[in-house]
Structures are given as C-alpha cells and as structure tokens.
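Hi U.,

Before I forget, here's the chain from the pilot set. I'm dumping it here mostly so it's searchable later in email.
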Amino acid sequence: MEAEINEKVLAMYHAVWNLMDEGHDINKLKVSDITERAGIGKGTAYEYFRSKEEILEQAVRYDATLQYNELAEKLEKQQTLKGSMECVFSWLEDNIGRRRFILQFLEMSAEMRKKDGGRRFCCVEEHMNHGFEAFRRLIGIMVEKGRQEGSISMETSEKHAQLTLLSQFMAFYVYLSAEKPTEEATTRMTKDLLYGNIIKSLSGV
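Structure:
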C-alpha cells in the first residue's frame, strides 16, 4: 500500500509518526520540523498539504489504515481462537507507542472544533469510528473461529461474545499502558489469564 503513496508524502507521514513516538508535543510541532525530519524542503509540504493540521490529519488516517490491514492479514492466517488472540496481543504490544500520537491528535482536534464550531477534523473521527467498526468485524471472525472449534458455545450470543473479547483486549491495552516496564513472564501470565477469562465466560462449560 505504501507504494501507492507519493514518496515525499509518505516521508512526511513517517516523520510525523517518529516525532510523536519520540514524545514531541503535537501542538508545538511545526511544518518545518516535519519536513526537516522527512528530508525535504518546507515549501514542498505545501505542494501537497494546506497546513500542518492537514498533514497530521492525513497521517492519522493513513496510519489507521495500515495498522488495520496489518492486523487483518495476520488474523487471516490464524486457525484457532487462541492463535487469533495471541495475534491481537502481539499487535497491541508492537503498536502501543502509537497511542501517544492518536491521543494528542484527538485532544488537538477537540480544541480546534471548539474554535470553529466543529468543522475541523470531523472526517478523522468518522474514519476512526469506521476503524472501530472494522475491528469489531475482525472480532466477529474470531468469534466464528471459536464457535467452530468449540471454545465458544453456540448458545452464546454474538454480541456477548464480541463484547467479552473486546473487554479482554482493552484489559491488555490498559496493562501495556502502565508506566512501569513489565517482565516478559508477567506479560505471558497476563495473556494466559485473559484467554482463560474468555474460555470461562464463553465456553458454556
């Protein structure tokens, strides 16, 4: 998919992601900061974007699409519910650093909406809502795998099964978001605990 994006635009997206992952304040970030990291001239940015905000907006949208496609491709290769859960756990571990960028952007967009009556960045929130729905569909596929192998009871409603899976993924996200670093053994134990919660809740045994 990256091959479909203009090389200079893609360089700016990567620059934004890297700057945010390094802890730069999104409100203080300038177009020149982005273009300098991308290795292009400041004027070049305005050949593709009207403002810093538009660069950030499109970087968020593109990142969300990339991350969803990556996860969907990995899940497609899994044959079991446990394998699918391990896949999502690993995906969350690999991408937990992205949360700083997303949260900062949402905070900034909320402030911008207050100033202009809600016209700015609405499309990003809509895109993120679509992303959540797409993720929910992936969870639905995982539920079906669980039903086929017998780890999720056929009597369990689709909504209950999906919400249960989502709650365990959210619990793992909260665990990863803890400020203190965690040991690998503790992370493994947490994953096993969350998977066990799924089986207890949805197997009907």
